[in-house]
Amino acid sequence: MTLTDLGWNTQLEAEFAEYRENGWEPARLIRDNKISYGAFLGDGEEVEVSLGGSVYHDAETDAELPSVGDWVALEMGAEGYEYDAVIRARLSRRTCLSRKATGKAAAEQVIAANVDRVFVVTDPGQDFNERRMERYFEVIEQSGASPAVILNKVDLHSDEESRIAKQKVEALSPGVPVLLTSAMNESGVDSIRSFLEPGLTIALVGSSGVGKSSIVNQLLGEEWQWVGEVNAATGKGMHTTSARELLCLPGGGMLIDNPGIREVQLWRDAETLKASFSDFDEIAKQCKFRDCGHGADKGCAIQAAIAEGTLSRERFINYLKLDEELERLSHRQKKRQITIGRRNRREQKSKDEKYNRKRGY
Ligand SMILES: Nc1nc2c(ncn2[C@@H]2O[C@H](COP(=O)(O)OP(=O)(O)OP(=O)(O)O)[C@@H](O)[C@H]2O)c(=O)[nH]1
Ligand SMILES: [Zn+2]
Question: Which residues are involved in binding Zn(2+) (predicted)?
């Protein structure tokens, strides 16, 4: 593996020139352990690194702190740090997949940096939803990455259904590549591979159960290996606490997969849900009391609007259920995190087992 395989290019090299003078080395972050990070060096060696004090203090917001996928400048073996290296600088991001609640001044949360292409995975049937697709396109566009759509589980649908779904996507976003796959029958996954090339990073988003893991498993293939395992033989990197989020795919290219990416749909749903009731907030501003319960309260503008017929009672009932609905979403989100936690532990276990086998334990 070389730096180029990890996505290094002449632009990054130019930006890095001043850091080279300090004897620092370029590396790409592959894991966020909160306290430390996992990073790949150009030769594929994996190191455990910590955040340099000035990088931390100079960051005005959390979004400026290094994230998985970022390129950083490392000072190897810096004194006074317990890790292999220290991050002295973060290089500019080509793209940035982040979560930013609309309307609020809430802090931006970076999910992955330098993802080149995001595949939206759905199916031609139950999961297919044009509005949701539009929101995915929005998030992807904001990130700077290129979109593509995978219609998976085509084995469960007629050619006609698949064709219609494909047309609908193409109507929403002309020119977007739409791939038909069946991860189950291992068909069409090659068409995803045709988008991969050394140095290119992809991510998969989509509802729970559409087949993202199945597709990832096929992309990783049988010979899937933990790159950087060699270094684990030195004992370094063994104190890792979470699973790798950036994976190298056989044949070239990388995949970033982490809980934040998996939850893209959930948080977009919560935001859209709130936004779809923004007219209520406008009307509620006219209520006599600021803490109006919109029930029997005096001077309630919502009730007045319902009485006038300008606001439907049905929507009002849905509005009242909003909190419940948001609660349900957050519950689903927690459930997802538990599933991901399990998967990460499984991966860590198989990694440990591989390591033990290698060492002859
Ligand atoms: N029939 C059919 N089933 C599929 C296909 N791809 C995946 N499945 C099944 O769908 C179920 C969900 O697949 P996953 O790969 O776990 O879905 P996911 O998107 O990773 O779900 P989360 O991990 O919850 O985000 C599994 O039972 C798969 O075997 C397909 O192409 N056809
Ligand atoms: Zn009111």
Answer: 287, 292, 294, 300
